[in-house]
Design a protein that fits this description.
Blueprint (H helix, E strand, L loop, with lengths): L4 H10 L2 H13 L16 H14 L30 E3 L5 E5 L8 H13 L6 E5 L21 H28 L7 E3 L2 E3 L5 E3 H8 L28 H6 L15 E5 L7 E6 L1 H5 L3 E8 L5 E7 L2 H10 L1 E5 L3
Parallel strand pairs: 2-3
Antiparallel strand pairs: 1-2, 4-5, 5-6, 7-10, 8-11, 9-10
Helix pairs in contact: 2-3, 4-5, 5-6
Length: 331
């Protein structure tokens, strides 16, 4: 399978400079070999094309950035995997706002609320101050059961329930540790309640005031989770975090993103896994106003598809609809 150097160069000439820089940097890091062969002097490797097109939306700002990393003093235990470390999932601002990064897409099934609720339960956070953002392509945001980025199969809560409980419990332990250090008392003498660490005599410190110090605390590998009888969020009537924005039309979706020089690609995929193109007539697609390039691209399980790149979704879709493709399903 080969990418036509002319259409590749045409696509590159219309791409934003920062996307080109990402592709060139990724190209420099690719291994040599047949699978990474470069199509033409101005082209790029097949694997690089997939890697960068998958990641570029995040790098260009289509999704919120992940939570800020912990300070250098807060080294996570070697036994913790990336998806078990609070630094990638929890950000606490000075005003006490807790932002939870979710490892799924929300298609209306409610994980934008459900996963933060699970974490907030163990964290003992003030629910009125909890927010959520989507994660990116970072390995921390893979499905812990499958080890890949995936949303589907009713697996969001099933596979991440314990994960998010433990993330909340680890964050809570670090906040308690920071308060204990500040007050000079044993952590066992402290408790948490609704966004505060409560000490002897009823004195309190808010999570926002403790956040910076807490992120320098050691990350506990083992944590004790709540008895479900203690739950105050899980299983209780709780408003969705995204309800207001979605019901008022203020929610931004991927299709709403507009960036300078941004292009949109849609892919014509084979009818079965592994199928390759036998013939392709893309002349009508290229004639659609706004279409910049038509590219043959690898798809899942060794298959082949056709990406239509245009200056907007509608032009890209019309271009895809105009393709005349015949597929070889024998492979």
């Amino acid at each position: 399978m080969h990418f036509d150097p002319q259409v590749v160069e045409a696509a590159r000439s219309s791409m934003p400079k920062n996307l080109l820089a990402l592709m060139d940097r990724a190209q420099g890091a690719t291994d040599s070999g047949a699978d990474d062969a470069i199509d033409g002097a101005g082209g790029f490797a097949r694997r690089t094309f997939l890697k960068v097109t998958a990641a570029s939306g995040f790098a260009l700002g289509a999704f919120p950035l992940a939570a800020t990393a912990q300070g250098a003093a807060a080294a996570a235990p070697a036994g913790l995997k990336p998806f078990e470390q609070p630094s990638a999932f929890v950000r606490i601002d000075a005003d006490g706002i807790v932002t939870v990064t979710i490892n799924r897409l929300d298609f209306g099934q409610g994980v934008q609320t459900g996963l933060p609720m699970i974490l907030a339960e163990e964290l003992d956070a003030d629910w009125s101050k909890v927010r959520s953002v989507h994660g990116d392509a970072n390995p921390a945001y893979v499905d812990p059961a499958f080890g890949m980025h995936i949303t589907g199969g009713s697996g969001s809560i099933k596979n991440s329930y314990t994960q998010y409980r433990e993330l909340g419990a680890r964050t809570r332990a670090m906040l308690v540790g920071a308060a204990a250090a500040q007050w000079g008392v044993d952590a066992s003498a402290l408790r948490t309640s609704n966004g505060f660490v409560v000490g002897p005599g009823g004195k309190k410190l808010g999570y926002g005031a403790l956040a910076e110090a807490a992120m320098k605390q050691p990350v506990p590998e083992k944590v004790v989770l709540k008895d479900p009888k203690q739950f105050r969020l899980i299983g209780k009537p709780t408003g969705r975090l995204d309800a207001k924005a979605k019901s008022s039309g203020r929610q931004d979706y991927g299709i709403d993103v507009r960036l300078p020089g941004m292009l949109t690609a849609v892919v014509a995929r084979p009818p079965v896994f592994g199928a390759k193109l036998k013939t392709l007539d893309d002349s009508a697609a290229k004639a659609v106003k706004g279409v910049k390039a038509v590219l043959r691209v690898p798809t899942d399980r060794g298959g082949e598809g056709v990406a239509v790149v245009a200056d907007g979704y509608w032009a890209a879709k019309q271009g895809r609809d105009a393709l005349k493709a015949e597929w070889d399903n024998s492979g």
